[in-house]
Amino acid sequence: MADVAREAGVSHQTVSRVLNDHPNVRADTRARVEEAITRLGYRRNLVARALVTKRSRTLGVVSFDTTLYGPASTIYGIEQAARTAGYFVSIVSLKSIDSDNVRDALGYLTEQGVDGVVVVAPQRSAWRALENLPSGMPAVAVEGMHNACVPVVCIDQVEGARLATRHLLDQGHETVWHVTGPADWLETEGRITGWRAVLEEAGRPVPEPLAGDWSPRAGYEAGKSLAAMKGVTAIFTANDQMALGVLRALSEKGVRVPDDISVVGFDDIPESEFFSPPLTTVRQDFAAVGRQCIEVLLRQIDTGPATAERLVVPPGFVVRSSTAPAR
Known about the structure:
The protein is of the alpha/beta class. The chain is built from 12 helices and 11 strands. InterPro entries: HTH_LacI, LacI/GalR-like_sensor, Lambda_DNA-bd_dom_sf, Peripla_BP_I.
C-alpha cells in the first residue's frame, strides 16, 4: 500500500479509502490510485486484513451429495451471491449426513475462522447437529424444518407439488400417481403433502405412492410398474431425473407420452427441455435461494445472530410436451 501511495502521490490512508470503496474520495484521485494499483500489480493481503478487521470475508457452506442437481445448484447460487457481496466461500461436502458429520464439518469451518455458515440441510437427520452450533455463530439453513433453531430459506415444495398435480387434474385426468424421493428428505415430504392435498381437495382417489431415490434408475423401475397397471393416465415424479427413467420405461412398454400417460417432473434441470418428449416440470429458483441466504447471513454478521425466520421462494411451472388432455 505504501508503494501504491508513493506511485499515485497520495497518502496511505487515501489508498485504504479507495480499496474500501469509501465515498469521500475525489474521482480523479480514485482514478490515479486505481491506475497505480494496476501498474504495480497490487493485491490486498486478506490474512492481514482479517487480523485487523476480525473478519475473514469467508463464509462456510455445509452440503450433502453435491452430485444431485438441487444441492449443486443451491451451492452455485450461494457462491455467486457471496462473490457479489465480496465474500469467499469454503465448502464442506459430506458423503453422508448425520449429526456427527454435520457437527464435525461445522467445527472444521469454525477453525477456519469463517464469518458465518450456510447449511444445505434437506434431511431430517441433519437438524439435530444444528442445535449445537458454536455460540454466536451467524447461520442460515436451506430447506429446513418449520421449528428450526436458525433462519431458513427454502423453496415452497408443497406449492410446487400442488402446481404439478393441479395441472394434471385440469387436463381431465381422474387422478395422479406419484413417484417420491427418499423418505428422510424434507423436500420429499413437502411434495407428497402438496400432491395429496390437491387430490383430496378435488375428491379424487389417492393412489399409493411409489418410493424412489432421485435417480433415473428408480424412475425406470417405478415406470415399469406403472406401465403394467390399468387406469394410469398421469404421473407426477418428485424430480426430473426420475421422470427421465419413467419416460424410458413407458417407451419400452409401448406406452405413448403424452397420448396414453402424461408425465410431470420437478426441478427443471437444463436437460429437461430436451427429453423425449420435452418435460413439463416445476422450476426451482436456486439463484433466489442463494441471494436470500447471503442477505440473511450478512445481516446477522452485521447485527448479531437472528431469531429463527422462514423465507419462502415461490416455485414456477413450465408446461412442455409431456402432458396433454386425458382421452
